Amino acid sequence: MAGETKTKASARKDQREGLRVERVWTTEGVHPYDEVAWERRDVIMTNWRDGSINFEQRGVEFPTTWSVNAANIVTTKYFRGAVGTPQREQSLRQLIDRVVSTYTKAGREHGYFATEQDSEIFGHELTWMLLHQVFSFNSPVWFNVGTASPQQVSACFILSVDDSMDSILDWYKEEGLIFKGGSGSGVNLSRIRSSKELLTSGGTASGPVSFMRGADASAGTIKSGGATRRAAKMVILDVDHPDVEEFIETKAREEDKIRALRDAGFDMDLGGKDIVSVQYQNANNSVRVSAEFMRAVEDDTEFGLRSRLDGSVISTVKGKELFNKLAQAAWECADPGIQYDDTINDWHTCPETGRITASNPCSEYMHLDNSSCNLASLNLLKYLNADGSFAVEKFVRSVEFVITAMDISISFADFPTEKIGETSRAYRQLGIGYANLGALLMASGLAYDSEGGRAVAAAISSLMTGTAYRRSAELAGVVGAYDGYARNASAHQRVMHKHAAANEAIALVGAVDTAIQEAATAQWTLGNEIGAKNGWRNSQASVLAPTGTIGLMMDCDTTGVEPDLALVKFKKLVGGGSMQIVNQTVPRALRTLGYQEEQVEAIVEHISSHGHVVDAPGLRPEHYSVFDCAMGERTIAPMGHVRMMAAIQPFISGAISKTVNMPETATVEDVEEIYYQGWKLGLKALAIYRDNCKVGQPLSAVSKKKDAEPAPVVQEVVKTEKVIEYRPVRKRLPKKRPSSTVSFSVAGAEGYLTASSYPDDGLGEVFLKMSKQGSTLAGVMDAFSVAISIGLQYGVPLETYVSKFVNMRFEPAGMTDDPDIRLASSVMDYIFRRLALDFLDFDTRSELGILTSSERAAQLRAEAGESDVDLTEMRNSAPVEKPAADKAAAKPVEVEIESPRRAGSSTELLELVQGKAADAPLCFTCGTKMRPAGSCYVCEGCGSTSGCS
Question: Which cofactor does this sequence's record say it needs (predicted)?
Fold first, then answer.
């Protein structure tokens, strides 16, 4: 196969003239490296949880314009060679040269360029764009190209599984090989017969859900084997599969198990030793729905579940009821997502070869089974001119360079299996995309959820894909159309005309989007003319990926199609340390909107202090929406995200990796509406995440009861103020008093807590020891202990201290060695939780949300009706501090206090600003809280991702 391909390429080189390349970014006679200032830096990466050094390389070379974070991520993730050896890369020049030289050499060998000079200019242009963070290839390119490793360039893979044991075992093996290389894969299991069907031997089939267990265990094992990222996978089942209800409920049931085990005292936190006992946690699940099913939902009619063997209807379900179960499961645990089969295949360029049945883990790549896609993303903010216009010509030329380089890579790439290699070389699927859309819109003074914002996004997407396909048609005239084009020519042309027609239908709003759309129209017209003559080199051109690690490499404020996460940002500093800054897009947007410099400074100062624009001095309320973000005081409504996806989808060959965030208060009906509107608006795939849906909340019933009775709380506040006005009288402890000492460990930091009681068992004295005598920390702890002890003796209720110090966040924070308090956000958080458990009564602790592991488990059983729980006995058995008669009236008021905790990422910074936890996992590598990137997560600290791009 390889020899035949090389022979064909040689023949084409003799018959066709290669590409002529003109300079866009570079200057003739000046190498791109000579245009920038360089500096040497030391890259030292520590584990946020314990401070240990997990990477160190000194003297690495980067341009002065590259941020500390971008340089750190490139050094740790992409530099090749053993650290400390001469073979280790130590400069960005070496990294870029390794990749670009491989691309240009392959381009010459396979006949892409007309002359040596054209290939040299091409190499310089790619170098300049990478050096100035204008675009980036996906991670596997940086990992592998130009090294002794297999030249794997693709991040996304789609596998296939047939209804046979051999095929199922092959699936396990192929998936493992892909995970080993740090990539992800997706698969549709709908060919496997259901558990309601018979085997040829006469027994009953296991069904696809049972085989998912083995694949999930395999992924979990490989994930924990030290790869650069978690194993990422997608599992899909068609909605007419007889086991679809079991599939839908699979992860929701496991989430219930996680809560139960956590409340029983097991370590169920991310990466915890007991979480491995829970199944199906290593995959994203999606249900593939048909238009027939969605019409059954609309009409509230029956829908047939069909045999995998002969297609006959085995049973029927109410379409609306099944759709409700799908939404209910997603509401409970964010899975499964939804994929719209008819829409996907209506935009399929190669239906004669086979249907599109699956996607990659993040749902942006959708094409043939046993295929792959390599990705690259453009940094849109680089094309925003000072006058607010979009640099259309430079954008078009950039797309030409990038799509050419991506196609060249298929000529030399290696693939994890021969089946994938054959399909990828025959259909040459590419995935050009972009990042920083949210930052571009904000800097342009456009709200993300607005007609103007959607018009610009749609026009840019159309221009990108139209240009990519036009260049693909030109490449077909130089090195030939993709091998599968001839049998799919009619369908491919039909899809190209659908894209062009959608471009004409963009609802234009302003001068900027009008200019971009006009350029896109020219690209689609010219591209379709050339394609009708030459065919196309690529069966797919574009996707919108999460751009996690590469987005950080390009110093993007926003990833993929996402809006800004928040207006305040975490920034690392040269020489160590970090600081909070307001996103630099904000002052640019304010100037675009016409604000004077004095106003800009005042608004930025307000944002820095409050984290949002509400009541910012001089900011007009009609401009608030420009600064709406994914999280924070003003968040973009869920349908705002869906409308943006709908505006862009007609101009993307594949799909869009994006999760629609929903508030915790969202209902199952809200999820149903989002999934239904996704179908009506022409999306290909959709996933939702409801805040806190994956966090066990055993005291939610207590909290709701408390919220439902606000009036008594107000009355108690009044009493509190009156009690405080009395002159306090100190009640000293007797010379001899009972006490207890508890040793503890919070994230590895050890200490001792000694608590002394009055004879009536009320707490009266606390002493803390966490360091050597004479040290600053020991002195501070002694002073703090004396202050708390005197306060207790003057009658300050313990619950007042508990309410103020619980949930305080600062280092050290993390796992503890206390079975009743598995996780603490600080030493103070742990100490006052422990004191509450030892000295406060059950009812008081319930209101504060502090219970022992056995109490939490018992309360859950009572709420579920599984067993009778004697709450009276539970109250009597709990330790109690006996308050004074007037102390019971002294209910504290929750107030926001400034936390001294140091943030390790933008997500953690946002937690400090908002005063509440964000639903994001901790990074396995460095321990910082990750940030959303499409339907995945990325770590700003080290660049690790939970996805495949």
Answer: adenosylcob(III)alamin
